[in-house]
Amino acid sequence: MKIDKQNIRMTCRSPKNILLTDKFWKRYRDLVKKKMIPYQWSVMNDQADIKITKERGDHRIPSEKSHAVANFEIAAGKQKGGHYGYVFQDTDAYKWLEAVAYLLTAEPDRQLQKVADRLVDLIADAQQDDGYLVTFFIIEAPERKFKRLKQSHELYSMGHYIEAGIAYYEATGSQKALNIAKRMADCIHEHFGPGKEQIHGFDGHPEIELALAKLYEATGNEQYLELARYFLYQRGQDPQFLDRQIEADGADRHLIAGMEGFPLSYYQADQPILDQKTAEGHAVRVAYLCTGMAHVAKLTHDDRLYEACKRLWKNIVGKRMYITGGIGATSVGESFTFDYDLPNDTMYCETCASVAMSFFARRMLEIEPKGEYADVLEKELFNSTISGVSLDGEHFFYVNPLEVSKEASQKDPGKSHVMFERQNWFGCACCPPNLARLIASVDQYIYTVDPEEKTIYSHQFIANRASFEQGITIEQSNNYPWDGTISYTVSNPEKARFKFSVRIPGWSAQCYDFYLSGKKISKEAHNGYAIFDVTDERLELELKLDMRVREMQADNHVKTNLNKVAIQRGPIIYCMEEADNTTPLNLYQLPKEVFFTENYEPDLLRGVVAIEADALRDEPDDADASLYHEYQQAKKQMKRVRFIPYYAWINRKSGEMQVWTRKAD
C-alpha cells in the first residue's frame, strides 16, 4: 500500500485503563445498562408492548415490529418466515451489541454477557460461508447481493457489525466475535477493489471506511486499511456507478422507496472526496464519511485526506451547525441545505448525526489536539446527543428540534417530523442503539496521549481515575457541568518526564484560573490547551472555569435568529418549555439589561441548574382583533421566565419549547 507520509501527528493512544467516577455521566451510563439495554433488547425481540413511530409520518416505514433478532433466526435457518424491516435492520442489533461490549469493559456482568454471547452465536450461524451477512438479502434476495449499493446499505450494515465485533472481542476476548468481523471484511475485500473481476464501487451510505480502519488497528492486517482507503478514494471517481447498478438491477425494484429522487451529492458521490468543498447531502452519511477520512488520514499519514477533513469540518461547524451541535437542516433526506440555513422549527438534527459528529471530533483530536475539536465534542456530548433519550431511558427523539409547537406538529405536514413528546421506538430505529453505544463508551473521549511529544491531553471534564504507561495515574474530580472547578491529581511514581495538557474551553477562554498546589498561577493556552511540565512524583492542579450565564448570538446571516439570543451556561445550552412558562413562548423578550439567577435543583430533572430571569412579554392580541393592522407598539408586561438544559426538555409534560428568545435592542 502506498502511503503518503507527511506531517500528521499521531496522538492516538488511550490510557491503559480508566474508571468513570463522574456523577453526571455515570448516571447516564447506568441508565444505558439498567434501562436502555434491556428495553432495547425486548423491542428487538418483539416482546415489548409499544407503539412504533413512523418517522416523518411516512406510511411506507415498517412499524409493525422490530423483528431484528428474528431476522437473524430466519437467516440462520432456525425459524421460518420473511424478513421484516429496513434492509439495514441488522444494525440495530449490532449497535446494541457494541454498547454491551463497552458496558462489560467498564464492569463485568456474567448475565448480560450470556445474553450477548447468544446473540454472537446467532450472528455466526446466520453468516454465510463466504463471510457475507445481511439478513435481508440472505432471506429475500440472494441474487441481488452487492448489485444495488445506492440503496442496499450492505457495506454499511457489515461495517456496524465489524465495529461491534471488535468492541466485543476487546471486552470479552471472544474470538468468535472477531472472526465474524474478519470474515465479513475478507468477503468485502474479495468483491471490491481495483481488480478486473472486482466491483469498482462503494456503498451509498458511508460507514465501512471507519469500521475497516478500526479492524486494521485490532488485527494489524494492512489489507483492511488499504480497503478503507480504496473506498474513500473511489467515492465520486465514477459518478454514474450507482445509477448503472440500478439500471442493471431494474429501475423499479427499489429497496427503500422514496430515495430514488435524491441527487448523487446526497450520497457524497458526485465528486471525489478531495474535491468536495462543502458538506452536502444526508447529515449522518457526511459525518460517518468524515470520521472514516480522519481515521484513515491518521493511520496512513495522508495529509490530503486531513486537509479535506478540515475543509468539511470548517464548513459544518462554521456555517451549518446548530448551537446545540445538531446538524441536518431539512427533513427532506435528513440533509444539509446551504450555508447559514438553520431553521429552528423545521430542521432535523437527527440524534445519529450528533453521535456521528462526536465520532468525527474524536478522530480529529487524535490527529491534532486543537481546542475547537474538543469544544465541538463537548457540545455534542452535553446537548444534541443526550437530548435524544428521556431521563427514564425508554423514550426517544429521532429529531432534535430547537423550537416546537404542539399544534404545528399535529397540523402542519411540513413539521410532522418534529415531535412534542418522546417516542417508544421508531420504524427506522438507528438512533436509540447508536446513542447507547456512545454513552457506554464516553470514557474513551476524555484523554489522548501523544507518545512522540510525551504529552497526555485532557480533552473532556468527566471525572475519572485513569492509568497510563510508566505507572502514571490521573484522578480528575469535579461536579461538571454544574460547577466549573476541575481538580487533577497526577501521580508519577517513577518521576517520568512528560507534559500534561488541559483544555480551556472556547466559552471560557477569556476568563479562567489555574491553581498549582493551591497557589494561583498564570498560564496561557495555545490552540485551546494549557501545558504543564511534569517531573515530580505528584502534581496537584485545579482549574476554575467561567460559568457565568451567557446570551449567545448567531451570525446575522442566520436570518431565523436575528435579534434573538440563546442561553448558555458552561457547555450546556438552555431552552424554555411549556412546563415552566406560559405559552406561546414566542411572546417573550429578554430586556436589554437582564439579571439571571442560577440555582441547582436536585429534584428537578434528575438534578440540574435552572436559570431564571425577568422578561418582557407581549400581551396577546384579542382573539377578535383584525388579522392585520397598522403598526403599534406592543403592550408588554414583566414576567418571570425559567430556562432548563436543552437535553432535558419534554421529560415532564408535552408542549412548546424554544431555544432562541427575542432580545430587546
Automatic annotation (TrEMBL):
Gene3D superfamilies: 1.50.10.10. One of its GO terms (molecular function) is hydrolase activity. InterPro entries: 6-hairpin_glycosidase_sf, 6hp_glycosidase-like_sf, Beta-AFase-like, Beta-AFase-like_GH127_C, Beta-AFase-like_GH127_cat, Beta-AFase-like_GH127_middle. Residues 19-443 form the Non-reducing end beta-L-arabinofuranosidase-like GH127 catalytic domain. Residues 455-547 form the Non-reducing end beta-L-arabinofuranosidase-like GH127 middle domain. It comes from the Bacteria. Residues 549-661 form the Non-reducing end beta-L-arabinofuranosidase-like GH127 C-terminal domain. Keywords: Hydrolase. The keyword Hydrolase applies. This is Glycoside hydrolase family 127 protein. It comes from Sporolactobacillus shoreicorticis.
